[in-house]
UniProtKB/TrEMBL annotation:
It is a multi-pass membrane protein. GO terms for molecular function: monoatomic ion transmembrane transporter activity. One of its GO terms (cellular component) is mitochondrial inner membrane. It comes from Caenorhabditis tropicalis. This is Sidoreflexin. Keywords: Amino-acid transport, Membrane, Mitochondrion, Transmembrane, Transmembrane helix, Transport. InterPro entries: Mtc. NCBIfam families: mtc. Belongs to the sideroflexin family. The lineage of its organism: Eukaryota, Metazoa, Ecdysozoa, Nematoda, Chromadorea.
């Protein structure tokens, strides 16, 4: 909208995303905007300007000549670069806008160079290093993970991915009649297994310290150790879902292309990388949108101590909300 804020009968509510987050379509639109890799090219000064616009607006201060579109562009840029709980600027490689370009290069390499041991080790190490950065950057709540936790989760996921990949490769070599496509799918199995290790280990403190739960107005009701049991499986499922199109369909497509007369082995890496990039451009925002970012849980499903605390408050809510993380 080109309408200026001074002419709005009702000012936009930017405390929530622009699109309805109670619907899959609304969440998908939101993540298509925040996961847009073009957001990575925003300078620090532009990010700070967007941050100041958003924070000032929340306090009732704004430029009356600013248009509604300009306000929402600032909010989108703010959401793409700053943590929703802490408000801190996120490390650039850990932002959702870095998912597509980074993952297309890493996954393209994993799916192309999957046969030789040094290649398998290198690409799984790179992938788990990147995943550790993303998991830490997008952790839920305000708890800081200690160095030991980060190191153990990183080692656990890397070891798990390599063990899975090498085991499957060994089995397939022994199984002489195995279809060639199965070997191309080994990286996906390793990634799925590693995600099931990495994310819970990276966020294990949430099970002891809890994550913030809020009422509908955004007031913190306390910290829940039950909510992570709902949040973390959702994140694992979404991460695995992101990998399905490019790591399952991608190899199948390349297998078909490799039979074409014009195909040469030197085309494998660039073709696989491009296929991954195209699919990730859609699977990343779609799978991020599978579950609401601010997920809900019934108060009577929380731990008893927190239930009692909430129920003692004036007009206690029946449902509370938590940030599930990404």
């Amino acid at each position: 909208m080109t309408q200026t804020l001074s002419k709005c009968e009702k000012l936009p509510d930017i405390s929530n995303p622009r699109w309805d987050q109670n619907t899959f379509q609304g969440r998908m639109y939101h993540f298509f905007s925040t996961a847009n890799c073009l957001n990575l090219f925003a300078s620090n000064s532009k990010l700070e300007k967007a941050r100041n616009i958003v924070l000032d607006y929340k306090q009732g201060k704004y430029d009356p000549n600013m248009t509604v579109d300009e306000l929402w562009k600032a909010k989108t840029l703010y959401d793409s670069a700053f943590h929703p709980d802490t408000g801190e600027k996120m490390f650039i490689l850990g932002r959702m806008s870095a998912q597509v370009p980074c993952n297309m290069l890493i996954t393209g390499g994993m799916l192309t160079f999957y046969q030789k041991l040094p290649h398998v080790i290198f690409f799984h190490w790179i992938n788990q290093s990147f995943n550790a950065i993303v998991n830490y950057t997008n952790r839920s709540g305000t708890h800081e993970s200690d160095d030991r936790t980060l190191f153990l989760s990183y080692c656990g996921a890397t070891t798990g991915a390599l063990s899975c990949a090498l085991s499957f490769n060994f089995i397939l070599k022994k199984w002489k009649k195995a279809p060639p496509i199965l070997a191309r799918l080994v990286p996906f199995a390793a990634i799925a297994f590693a995600n099931a290790i990495n994310i819970p280990m990276m966020r294990n403190k949430e099970f002891t310290n809890g994550i913030p739960v809020e009422d509908a107005a955004g007031r913190t009701m306390g910290f829940s150790t039950v909510a992570p049991g709902h949040a973390i499986p959702q994140v694992v499922f979404s991460r695995v879902g992101m990998a399905v199109p490019n790591m399952v369909l991608g190899p199948i497509i390349l297998e078909q292309l490799s039979r074409a007369a014009w195909y040469t082995p030197s085309m494998a890496a660039p073709l696989q990388t491009l296929i991954c990039g195209f699919m990730l451009a859609f699977s990343t925002p779609i799978c991020c949108a599978l579950f609401p970012q601010k997920s809900s849980i019934q108060v009577d499903h929380l731990e008893l101590s927190l239930q009692e605390h909430i129920n003692k408050l004036p007009n206690p809510p029946k449902v509370v909300y938590y940030n599930k993380g990404l």
